[in-house]
Amino acid sequence: MDGTIFISYTIPMIGFLIKKTFFDVWDNLFRVALVNLGFILSMGAFVFLYSVSAELSPVVSLVVLAVGILWGCVYLSTAAGSLKAVSDYSSFGFADFFRNLKEFWPAGIASGVIIFVAVILVTYVLPFYLSMQSLFGLLLAAVVFWTLVVFALSFQFFFAIRSRLDVKLGKILKKCFLIFFDNPGLCIFSMIYCLVQLVFSVLLAFLFPGPAGILLYLDEALRLRLLKYDWLEANPDADRRKIPWDALLIDEREKTGTRSLRNFIFPWKD
Fold it and tell me: Which terminal residue of the chain has fewer beta carbons within 10 Å of its beta carbon, N or C?
């Protein structure tokens, strides 16, 4: 019964989240494509360098991998800071993107280091524990695996939290885990939805929705979820399982509006 109550109150928020993200991506196709193209070209260069360095030296290839991850995270952090404007019913330009690069690169570096450590755990530590072929090794592998799962579900909102809530690394990480443990259903759904977007992006050469579309979705998800906390702060005695999303989303739905297929294809004819 509790699960039914939770789902019935959450579906309106999830449905609107998907709708608004789609509308925002569609309205900003050119910007989304440019952000994705920049990421594809820059990371493609690192992939090429990594493939070449792998034949030369394992140490050099590891350095190239680390630098590539750091740059990728700096780029994604900058992109998330820029796409926040789209989520807020505005837009951004080249000047905004490069200004955000100066502001968000520290968060990108920090997240890159964290992700690099996670990659090492997946590629070296986890296989090592499994290769021990003992109950103790299996136990350690299980601990590492589930720690990485919880980390991935929590960390997916890192860039959005940096853009909206805090600038200090410790507080950003703390809020990542707070969001997960307070909203596990949303985090699991978001991870699945982002993976679906990633698979769909392959069909469109990562131009749509691509990394930018995924970042935009995560920012939209966090932005709407913050409405819950504003409401709970104003209503401290309310049931946390019964968030009145239909009422909370009235203004958002008015701003987003509705569209027909003709509106999408020929918006200038309205």
Answer: N
